[in-house]
Design goal:
By secondary structure, the chain is an alpha/beta fold. It has six helices and eight strands, in the order αβαββαβαβαββαβ.
Length: about 170
Amino acid sequence: MTGRIEQEIRTYELLDSLGIAYERVDHEAAFTMEACEQIDNVLGISMCKNLFLTNAQKSAFYLLMMPGKKTFKTKFLSKQINSARLSFAGEEYMRELLDLSPGSATVLGLMNDKDHRVRLLIDKELMDKPYVGCHPCINTSSLKISTMDILEKFLPAISHDYTVVELPNIIS
């Protein structure tokens, strides 16, 4: 654990305590899905796109997990969650609510959402995948974790629910 940040160490400690197996690869900071393509090849999966969103009033916050190859259009999500005008939440909210820095958004960051202010949204397409790829609260490492372990062990352990949404595959 030498040289790892506190958030990352806490992530591994929680996963280990829950008996959640994972494969890890360390790499240069990955800020885009294009940068994750090599990581995909090493782990044998597709990394999730994790978007931290808010409503116009900045009173509701969402973490959206979706396939990395999908294009995000707010109008398709807004209708499903009854929220008008979604946008990306600012860095200050990501730090305050998830204890994460930009580029490191991850479902694992929900362990830091003690007040349950962030609603997890998962694209239906991910529900059928055996594994998800995500960061361990830092974008210089990536993990391959069983989707069922996230849904059946991790989220219950941190008392977080999720909502399944269906985002269309848009060809640009």
